[in-house]
Amino acid sequence: MNIEKAKKRIAKQVKKGVNGYPKITLEYFGKTTELATDVIISFTLEENSEVQEQKFVNKSDIREDETIQSMIVKIIERADAATVTQVDGVSLIK
To answer: What domain count does the chain have?
Structure first.
């Protein structure tokens, strides 16, 4: 899957809004707000259940990495996520 298609599919899922569980949250991190080198994907099966997290790291901008963005799409599809949220911008790595 090409990068633009993957990004559009993720954005489409985010635009659907909150529709219950299972829920996936995406948050990008970097040393600056311009370059995201990490992404944490949080998965919540149901309300009050333990949150599972998976982290991916890249040397270049992870938002432009075709493999990782395609993997995020696959994770969303396999989880059959009712809700996909994304934290705006790039959070700074502490």
So the answer is: 1
- Report if pTM > 0.70: yes
The C-alpha atoms of residue 53 and residue 31 are separated, in whole angstroms, by: 20
Whether 69 is in a domain gets the answer: yes
Cβ-contact 51, 43 below 8 angstroms: yes
Question: Structure tokens of 68?
Answer: 């990782």
**CA within 13 Å, CB half, 78:** 7
Q: Is residue 94 assigned to a domain?
A: no
Q: Are strands 52-57 and 23-30 parallel, antiparallel or unpaired?
A: unpaired
- Do you know the residue count of the chain? 94
Per-residue model confidence as pLDDT tens digits over 60-73:
999 999 999 999 99
